[in-house]
Amino acid sequence: MNQRIDAALARILPRVQKPARYVGGEYNQTVKELSGVDTRMAFCFPDTYEIGMSNLGLRILYGIVNRMEGVWCERVFTPWGDMEDEMRAAGLPLFALESHDPVGDFDLIAFSVGYEMSYTNILTMLDLAGIPLRAADRKGLHHIVFAGGACTYNPEPLADFMDFFSLGEGEESTVEIVNCYRSAKRRGLSKEEFLWELGKIPGVYVPSHYVHSYKPDGTLEAITPLAGAPEKVTKRIVQDLDKAWYPTEPIVPMTEIVHDRMNLEVMRGCIRGCRFCQAGYTYRPVRPRKPETLYEQAVHALEFSGDSEITLSSLSTSDYKYLEPLTDRLTEYCAARNINMSVPSLRADNFSRDLMLKLQKVRKSGLTFAPEAGTQRLRDAINKNVTEEDILKTCEIAFAGGWNNVKLYFMLGLPTETDEDVIGIGDLVYKIYNTWKAHAANKKRGVRIHVATAFFVPKPFTGFQWERQITPEEYLRRCRLLKEHMNNKSVEYNYHEAKLSELEAVLARGDRRLGAVIEAAWRRGAKLDGWMEYFDYDKWIAALDECGIDRHFYTTRGFGSDEILPWDSIDPGVSKRFLLRERERAYRSEITPDCRHGCAGCGANRLLECGVCDP
Amino acid sequence: MSRLLFAKEGAAIWSSHLDLMRALMRSFRRAGIDLKHSQGFTPHPELSILMPLSVGVESQCEIAEFTLAEGCVLPPEEIVSRLNPVLPAGIRALDCWEGGRKAGKLAWLRARLTLAYEESEARDPGSGDGGADSPTPPRSAQNDRLEALRELFARPSLTVEKHSKKGPVETDIAPMIRELTVSAAAGDAVVIEAVVAAQNPTLNPLLLVTAIETRLPEYKPAQVRCRRLELYDEDMQVFR
Ligand code: SF4
Ligand code: SF4
């Protein structure tokens, strides 16, 4: 343990909120003897401990890197504002949880980025660590900073700050990256030489090897790879999930985190292809794990961690092919040991009464649906294959079974949306209320229908990647319209902060010019932007002005279908041709069947060695 | 019903009472010790902690109460030896026994406060490493401080402001202090050892520091370390 840092911490910790998140020492954290370590990696998650420790990617990569002899990977999270102030006042540098050593002492600084509004947290962390923010200002192999995660499919807004990006699933590539670094250090390579070596690893994107030039109208003129750099970098995937390493001996947090339970990942990818959904496209191809593998992993992890809750996670768990056999065995195991099992993201259409009853035996949780749109026409346009009949049928079963709490998620501002679609949400909610009246097991307890709307954010690598975003004012008008059409005491309506989603849209489809904006916003004090306590729109607007950037260029303008897109150097598997086709079908309100009902030819199968998906 | 005596030190002191409960429940599961569960939709293990401990406070005398599941028969020593390897850093099982005194018999708590001033560090004298490397100010400053603190705690009445659910309330803490000594420690620190009321009402030893801060602001410590040492009944017999 670092004594200087520990002495300072002892003074600071009594004054900050939730100090447990800054001390480490949890059960089964990895601690190594420094004499046997040649490479130290700081795995940085640019959000709070509670969010970061709930991230499966972090737990997987932490385990994988720490299995390497001579390499020690430690965790670092963004300090909350009170802690950041205390650290700055005390001159305390950013430190890693396991050793409490300053992050500035580490070789590799890896960021896992899953949310656009956490970009400024990356700068906060680098700054607190005393590491130059910009890649160009970091010389030599001392601090190599890189990023991976869902946001890095469009790496450009972070290109100024990162030496390279690791695209896709990191189980294999991270090991290759660490070994490439060790060999570079041994051979005394320069940073430039190292980056060229690294660029040979599939899935590694080195932004400094690409020159972006712009037309007078601000759109991209060309993306020119330097000689030797590949035209496109293809994301990595794990070929055989049943053989992939899984954290069955996880770190057990000492303070409550967001997902404070054993997380069993039943599959990767989603068969659905909702046209707005970035995860749905970028996690393809769909790869289920075998129920036998999962059962063993679950039992091992539950016994090791002592967790009394387990959740079957994936993008859409009720689509998991072997859900029946898996839950059959698991419910038996769990019921005998007072363990709760939960299945998030249940869908209305294949929600079997059986499964509901089975879960009810263990625990009664709320019902959640995400129809996303209020009318069938718009649901078809976004390819959300849920019908009103499915939703009402499921509600009927649930209400009759004693549930009296429903959550419904919608989006406003979707492409082709009209006022009729907005009012359609109100109609659907009214029908759900009537279903409750007709079928409730116990009317005296009343019913709560929670409705939440999000502001549609067009994301790269979706069927809607070229679409316009409506203005925040128009979004709020639609929210008010909806509210007027949901006059019922049992309905509770919440809508997302419009300005946050507007900036999210700017950053999601941003190009390299946004690096300056992120830095300017951060210098003006923007931090923890994903948290309402800290989000400050005005700082961002001032930063955009300062850099001479018009946010509407990235939001309400929309991108031309023949325009060069900032993320064109990245290949996530799904082809651009397919995405264009999906957009056309959306305009015709034509659905695309899910992968299990027939391959739609998205192109992601190219990533598989066998070339054929097994959804 | 059984009881477990355990210590909470190191990194673990920063977790809350609820965090500690969760950690203990998970540790029992890891140790393969089945606890009895309540009935109903969300069965809870029968496990509780006698006196919740504030965040940041160390203890060598925490007591947890639990009931083993039917069919789970284990000698108390084995519970201790099974728990220790699977407890998180800073939590140590010290002893375990069946039954125990009624919780209502718990009356007094011995605690030690180590107050550090200026540059010195609050090191626990019990841990053996004195903070001798920091410069010692003129002896008289330390003596003045000791005297002032002794005088403060010798007063027949000592009201402090306590935060309660209904807002701040004035409480006289003097009657809740049974014994109190103030002594000098290495590195210009001051050690207060006190026996205070454990129940009806409880006196959180940190309120002694609040008293110093409000009554003698010039002796407000830069850093405080607090440790629970022992529990007693009404007759000052060790409570188990
Ligand atoms: S079901 Fe649709 S929204 Fe959900 S993960 Fe799959 S594609 Fe995305
Ligand atoms: S290649 Fe076909 S089956 Fe595979 S993910 Fe794409 S659409 Fe689905």
Number of strands of chain A: 19
CATH architectural designation of the largest domain in chain B: 2-Layer Sandwich
- The first-level CATH class of the largest domain in chain B is given as Alpha Beta
Overall helicity of chain A:
25-40%
Which percent band covers the strand fraction of chain B?
25-35%
* SS summary, helix count of chain A: 19
Beta-strand percentage range of chain A: 5-15%
Indicate the low-confidence ranges of chain B by residue numbers: 127-132
Bound molecules: iron/sulfur cluster
Describe this structure in words.
The complex is a heterodimer of chains A (615) and B (240). By secondary structure, chain A is of the alpha/beta class. Among the domains of chain A are: 3-234, Cobalamin-binding domain (Rossmann fold); 239-365 and 572-615, Transcription Regulator spoIIAA. In chain A, 34% of the residues lie in helices and 14% in strands. Chain A is globular. Chain A starts with a helix and ends in a 28-residue tail after the last helix. By secondary structure, chain B is of the alpha+beta class. Chain B has two domains: 2-100, 2-Layer Sandwich (Alpha-Beta Plaits); 105-233, Alpha-Beta Plaits (2-Layer Sandwich). Chain B is built from four helices and ten strands; from the N terminus they run βαββαββαββββαβ. In chain B, strands 1, 2, 3, 4, 5, 8, 9 and 10 form an eight-stranded mixed β-sheet that branches. The longest helix of chain B is centred in the middle third of the chain and has 16 residues, at 139-154. Classes of the chains: A alpha/beta (615), B alpha+beta (240). The structure holds iron/sulfur cluster (SF4) (2 copies). One iron/sulfur cluster (SF4) is lined by residues 284-286, 595, 599-602, 604-605, 613, 615 of chain A.
